[in-house]
Amino acid sequence: MYKGMGNMMKQIQKMQKEMAKMQEELEQKTIETTSGGGAVSVQVNGKKELVSLTIDPSAVDPEDLEMLQDMILAAVNEGLRKVDEMVMSEMQRLTGGLNLPPGLF
To answer: Cα(91)–Cα(105) distance, rounded to whole angstroms?
Structure first.
């Protein structure tokens, strides 16, 4: 029985190393999303940091700043959602679809 535990611990340690490597790789990736038909474009990295925000000058209407704010929020939120999807996809690939609780590694 002890030998089985040793093998399991080795597998867990290997998975921890693979997950750390995956996390580093994900932090280097960026996701780009747009809203308002491309009027607002954002890039979000794997650390969920907004790294770029581009606004088409035609989207800036001093009479309707609320619309611009909504487009920015939509683009940023979509970017963050896509980062979550990217992370989940990589986690499932790494763990073979195991349903491991968040924070286990």
So the answer is: 11
Domain that holds residue 56: 2-95
In a domain, 101, yes or no: no
* pTM listed for this prediction: 0.72
Q: Which residue has the higher pLDDT, 69 or 98?
A: 69
Cβ-count burial 55-81 (b if 16+ within 10 Å, e if not)? beeebeeeeeeeebeebbebbbebbbe
pLDDT digits (tens, 9 = 90+) for 31-62: 999 999 999 999 999 999 999 999 999 999 99
On whether the CB atoms of residues 63 and 47 are closer than 8 A, the answer is: no
What is the distance between the alpha carbons of residues 69 and 8, in angstroms, rounded to a whole number?
Answer: 51
